[in-house]
Structure formats: structure tokens, C-alpha cells
Amino acid sequence: MLVLIPLILIFSLSSGVLILRNINTQINTLVTQVRAYSKLTAKPIGDTYSLYYESGYLKFAELTNQILALNPDIKKVQIISVTGEILFDSDQLINTQKPKTIAKEQDSQVVEKVKSNLRSESPSNGSNARPEQIIEPYFEDFGAHPFSVRYFVSYSSISENVFGTVTATMLLSLVFFVASIVLIISTVNKRILSPIEEVTRGAGKIRSGDLSYKIDVNTKDEVADLAAAVNQMAATLRKNIEDLKALDKLKDEFVFIASHNLRTPLTIIKGYTEKLLNEADLSVGAKKEIENMSQATGDLETITESLINLVALEKGKEPVLLSEVEITDLLRRTAEQFGEAASEKKISFIFEFPNQPLPKMRLDAGRISQAFANLIDNAIKFNKEGGKVIIKVEKNPKDVTVSIQDTGIGIRKEEQSKIFEKFHRATDTLRYDYEGVGLGLYLTRLIIQSHLGKIWIKSNLGEGTIFFVQLPFREV
After folding, report:
1. Is the peptide bond before 123 cis (omega within 30 degrees of 0)?
2. Beta partners for 350?
3. Pick from 125, 164, 175, 206: most CB atoms within 10 A?
4. Nearest alpha carbon to residue 396 among 445, 447, 364, 361
5. How is it placed in the membrane, per its record (predicted)?
């Protein structure tokens, strides 16, 4: 207990010194900041006064308030002419109308400082002084000095922070005091602390993902029991992750096999419906029902193919079949596939291609066409009646950027980061009863990434969406 008395005295003394130094540091920092603020803002305040005070007082008041808000330690600003007139006082900003009267500065020393064209402080200009007023001369662009800006400095924030400073310093001293005691005790209890540190270190490694790490503690006490529990937890997590991976693999295999097995019956159903539609003696009602059946079969076939492509692209089961492709021709041909759908909504295509022919690119034509088809389909599907789809190509030194823009409903900002996720459909679009299961853009992203490209989006709600695709040139 007697050992603690000198420690308490030392920390009490150090706390007092720290408090005084902290307060002095705050004051010096405040003085430095207001000096820098006055130097940096005199010109903007003067320019704002010259431009807007007479012709647009509300604009002047708005800009001046913004400047004053940058430093709360400046309690007031005045603009004083070289003849001693107070042209502006920030206390007047509470009024929405420009003041009709101009006051006269009564302090002759202030007027003399304004006339001197020099910067000055009151009570003094010493580096260690605590100025209450700062006068900064304002010079027009051609050198004239019509007035100076006078800043009134407030030190009230220091007083307001004294309690916080004292509290923080005392707490800090208390922390050091406790740390000293802990340090003394730790030398005695090293046998207990070391195993705890080992458990903490092991838990950190396991938390960061190293589930193979094993905590080695052999103290045969509660700490050893804790280490064993953490090791068991890591082993359980490792097994659960392996089980989830196996389950994910089974899911992919099931989707792939089920989709493949659906192809044949769907092809047969589609063939029979097409044959039935060619029968001449069908009634109007029967023909309509068969057309609906054919449409539903086509939709199911599209979903089946999407699922097959999804598994193949995710697992890399199908290689990228590169060939030389003229990107602008591919875009035109892909857009032509949607001519009928665009005509139904009176949507027009606009192509903005470079005047000079682009060099051929090494692409998987089928996959890339599928990706662009998904984007064009969305541009039509989510467009407005009589809208536009703008397809633009830009050649860069190392790549080509394709943008597909619509004038449709747009996508909420919070949805844009999720738009390329699997099975995701933007919240707003659900209201429009659009078809699809949320795989199109996810597949598009996988296709673009398989070509070492990038895809991103820019959209404003109610104005439309632009999808950007960047594909690198590859050597032939």
C-alpha cells in the first residue's frame, strides 16, 4: 500500500502539468487557426462584398455566412473603409434587408490601422500573443485598398472545453496509473497472463479466417478449458464450411442436370405447338390457347438455358471460344433481333459508332452477343413508350467501351450496387410486372469478366439507365 502513495503523488502532479499544457496548446492552436483564417478569408469576403452587397444582398449574406461558418471562434466580422466607415457588420446578417445606415468607427487607432494598408492585431502582433481583434487589408485586383476586414476573436470555446480537458486528462492519468499497477502485477502473474495472450492471439487468427490454427495451452486450468473450447469451435466451423461447399456443389450439379433434362421435353413440346399452329382448321380460341402454350414453352426454355449457362460460367466448364469479331457489326445484328419488340413500344435505336472502322477484336461472338442482347432487352423492356435506345462505341488505346443507354424508368441508387447479383430484381421494377428471374445481368457480368472486361452502371431514377461495357484488345 505504501508503494502506491508515491505513484499517486506523481500522477497527480503530472495530471496538473498535462492539463495546463493542454489548455495552452488549445489556445495556441486557436490563435494559429484564426490567424490563418483571417489571411485566407479576407480576399473572399472583400470580393463577395464588392460583387453582391449592393446588387444582391441575399447572395452576399448567404456566401458570407458560409465563410463565417468555417471558423466558430470568429464571433464577428466588420468591413471598415479607409475613411473609417463601417461598411458591413456581420451582426446585421440576421436581417434579410441591406442596412440603410452606415456607422462610423469611433476608435481612431483602428482607423489608423486600416489606413496603413498593413495587417495588425490587437493587443499586439507577438507570436505568443492572444489577439482579440485582427485587421486584414483588402486589395482589389489592380492594387487599390478600399477597405480592411476586421475579425473579432472569441476564446469561449477554450472555456467550454476546460471541463472536457480536465476530465480527459484525469482519465488518461488514471489509465496510466492502472497500467502501472497492472505492469507490477503482471510480473507476478506471468504464468496466468501468457496463456491468456495465447488464447487471444489464437482467437484473432481464427476470426481472420485461419481455422486450421490450434491454440496450445497446457496449464490444466480454466484458461486451458477456454483454449479447448475455442479449438473445438474452429473445428466445427471448418466442418460446416466444408459441408456448405459440398452442398453448393450438389446444388450446381442438380441445376445443371435438371436443366439439361428439361431441354428434350421442351423441344418436343415446342415442336408440337408449332405444328399445331400450322393446322388450317383451328378455331380462333384454340389457336390463341396454343399460342399461349408456345409462349410459355419459350419462356421456360429461356430460363432453362439461363440456368445451364449460369452453372457453366460459374464453374468455367465451357471454354471461351475466341474468334475475330467486328464489334459494331455484332452490335447492329444483336439490336436487329429486337426490332419487333422495339416497334411495339415505338422505341428507336440510335447508333453512335466511330467514323473509322475499328480493328477486329478477339471475342467469343456467341457469348458477347448474349451479353449485349441482355442489355438491349432490358433497355427496351424498362423503357418508356416512344423512347430511345442509344448504342455507343468508343475506341480507347487499350480497349473498347460500349454503352447502351435507355430513356426509361431508371434504377434507385441503393439498388444499383445489387443489380449484378444472382436472382436480383430491382425493387421498383417489380411493380411493372416485367418477366425474368433476375439472371440476365448476372450472366452478363460473368460473360464480360470471362473476357477480362468490366461492366458498370449509371442511372437516375425517372431519367434512364446507361450500362457501360469495357472490353480489352487481345492480340490475334
Report:
1. yes
2. 390
3. 206
4. 361
5. Multi-pass membrane protein
Q: Are strands 348-352 and 388-395 parallel, antiparallel or unpaired?
A: parallel
Q: pLDDT (tens digit, 9 = 90+) per residue, 222-280?
A: 777 777 787 888 778 777 777 776 666 655 555 555 555 555 676 677 676 777 777 75
Cα–Cα distance for residue pair 291/181, rounded to 1 Å: 86
Any idea of the CA torsion for 173, 176, 178, 183, to the nearest 10 degrees? -160
Contacts for 389-393: CB closer than 8 Å, 24+ residues apart: 389/335, 389/342, 389/347, 389/348, 389/349, 389/350, 390/350, 390/352, 391/331, 391/335, 391/349, 391/350, 391/351, 391/352, 392/351, 392/352, 392/353, 393/327, 393/328, 393/331, 393/352, 393/353, 393/354, 393/358
CB 76 within 8 A of CB 44: no
Rounded to whole angstroms, how far apart are CA atoms 448 and 437? 20
Residue 437 and residue 301: Cα distance in Å, rounded? 13
Q: Where are the domains of the chain?
A: 4-159, 264-315, 323-472
Map residue 136 onto helix, strand or coil: strand
pLDDT in tens, 374-432: 899 999 999 999 999 999 999 999 999 999 999 999 988 888 888 888 766 654 444 44
The span from the CA of 32 to the CA of 26, in Å, is: 10
Note whether 200 and 215 are within 8 A (CB): no
Pairwise CA distance, residues 286 & 290, whole Å: 6
Which amino acid is located at 438 in the chain? G
Contact 110, 135 (CB under 8 A): yes
Measured distance CA(346)–CA(389) in Å, rounded? 11
Reported as a single tens digit per residue, the pLDDT across 172-228 is 767 766 776 766 666 556 566 677 777 787 778 777 777 777 777 777 777 777 777
Judged by DSSP in three states, 112 sits in: helix
- Give rounded-to-5 percent helix, strand, coil for the chain: 55, 15, 30
Q: What is the 3-state secondary structure (H, E, C) of 373-412?
A: HHHHHHHHHCCCCCCEEEEEEEECCCEEEEEEEECCCCCC
- Report domain 323-472's class: alpha beta
